[in-house]
Design a protein that fits this description.
With 468 residues, the protein is an all-alpha fold. The protein contains 21 helices and two strands. The protein is globular, with a radius of gyration of 22 Å.
Length: 468
């Protein structure tokens, strides 16, 4: 019922621009609202407390169900002319902030459809933050319990308590403030009001949808690129940390946080390699290497997926290196995708510990994040996450190869979707419209798997989960 209300803004945009798409949104609004009412009436008197098991189910259904209803405007619109498969793919890509699109010739679409795609990412972004910061630490997903005591409204028991509501309000306020600031910055830098709002939605959500086929390259503006880079980096930081900085009124908390410090160092290393190699190979001059190299590296590493240049045509190893950075993604509790910086950091520290154990077999070596000792249970959960992630990745890649895709396309399509990145290499460098329907459904599953931190989705396939 609440989600149906989100169809009103694009309906109003359609009426404002008189783009003849208002019937699609009106029909989608009525279907979504009526379905919600029909499901709400039998259960509205139920006052039982929600348990951890309910948390898993709600978290998974949040994106799966809303993506199905979110696809209705695409299905009904004559302007998009999308099949059901393509419509669900586009809606799920938006809500999971993946940014993989099946639509081409964006400039010819109605303004309301363009606005709706951007809004889907923004709504998905706030859902990601609230669930990642307020729910997943409590569920103990792959090491995210490390943040259990650091959220704005800590949840320390097995119930989904009202304190999650307090957490959600604080996070939403920060998210909204960043979005407004980003939109204003884009407008001052030279975007139209429509483009500024749309791109602010997808920048803060780290989504990557654009209102133009050329993405950010359409604007050809250094000022716009710099604004985008700043807000992509900010949106890749844990929003609970933003809350801490806002509450304590000091920027030192960013550098004092081990994960944020690791994240910024990885960005610095990536920038150094990318800019240096582009200049060394004479792909661009010094200015072009710095600007286009920086933008592309930050866009891919944070899993936003905006583009200003065709990085797939860059020399030798660079396109693959930049793509591999997306596996790290943003920080936990951000709108970024990937495996999350905290997990990569813990895997690295565990690797070093194993090397030290070979030298000192009887030593008791603790893994620390900042001044906090990380329990072996958290490290085990991270390694478990990594193992299942790799198994799922390989399985889906083999399925895509079986549908007829080439190795580069299959490898990067799965990587781009499970990391919620968007653009890949090969046949999915520009868009996903030309691949077969079976591959698209597999990639839809990959988007959900990546956005739900793997275990949240896979646990629903366990018979034990459904036993009383």
């Amino acid at each position: 019922m609440l989600f149906s209300l989100t169809l009103i803004p694009p309906l109003l945009v359609s009426l404002w621009y008189d783009d003849k798409s208002h019937y699609s949104f009106l029909l989608a609004f009525l279907i979504t609202l009526i379905t919600g009412v029909v499901m709400f009436i039998p259960s509205y008197r139920n006052q039982q407390e929600m348990r951890t098991r309910d948390g898993f189910l709600i978290t998974a259904l949040f994106w799966a169900v809303l993506a199905i209803f979110g696809s209705l405007p695409f299905i009904f619109s004559n302007a998009t002319n999308l099949s059901i498969t393509d419509s669900v793919f586009e809606a799920l890509s938006g809500l999971t902030t993946t940014g993989a699109t099946v639509i081409v010739a964006l400039e010819y679409l109605p303004k309301s459809i363009l606005y709706y795609r951007q809004q889907l990412q923004w709504l998905g972004g706030i859902g990601i933050i609230v669930i990642a910061v307020a729910v997943l630490p409590m569920l103990g997903i792959g090491g995210m319990q490390l943040y259990r005591a650091e959220t704005p409204g800590p949840v320390k028991d097995s119930k989904l308590t009202p304190r999650i509501t307090e957490t959600a309000k604080a996070l939403f306020l920060i998210y909204l403030t960043l979005t407004v600031a980003c939109a204003l910055a884009y407008w001052v830098a030279g975007m139209s009001v429509f483009d500024a709002i749309g791109h602010a939605y997808s920048t803060v959500a780290i989504g990557g949808f654009s209102t133009h086929d050329a993405s950010m390259g359409y604007f050809n503006s250094s000022a716009i690129y710099i604004v985008a880079m700043v807000f992509m980096v900010l949106s890749g930081i844990n929003f609970a940390l933003h809350f801490t900085v806002w509450r304590e009124r000091t920027l030192r908390s960013y550098w004092q946080d081990p994960e944020c410090r690791f994240y910024l160092n990885i960005i610095a290393i990536g920038l150094l390699i990318t800019i240096s190699y582009l200049y060394y190979t004479k792909t661009y001059g010094l200015g072009g290497s710095f600007l286009e190299g920086s933008f592309t590296l930050i866009s891919i590493l944070t899993t936003t997926g905006f583009g200003v240049a065709d990085f797939t045509a860059w020399p030798t190893f660079l396109p693959y290196l930049i793509f591999m950075f997306a596996f790290m993604g943003g920080c936990a509790g951000s709108t970024g995708g990937g495996m999350k910086m905290i997990r990569i950091m813990l895997i690295f520290k565990q690797g070093l510990r194993e090397i030290h154990r070979l030298i000192h077999p009887n030593a008791l070596i603790a893994i620390k994040v900042g001044n906090k000792t990380v329990s072996d249970r958290v490290v085990e959960a991270v390694w478990g996450f990594f193992a299942v992630y790799v198994i799922c990745y390989v399985t889906m890649m083999l399925i895509l190869l079986g549908t007829g895709l080439d190795v580069t396309t299959a490898f990067t399509a799965v990587g781009a979707c499970i990391n919620n990145l968007g653009p890949g290499l090969g046949d999915v460098a520009a868009h996903y419209g030309d691949i077969n329907d079976t591959a698209k459904w597999v990639l839809c599953f990959a988007m959900l798997l990546g956005r739900l931190e793997v275990f949240t989705l896979l646990v629903l396939f366990s018979p034990m989960f459904w036993r009383r």
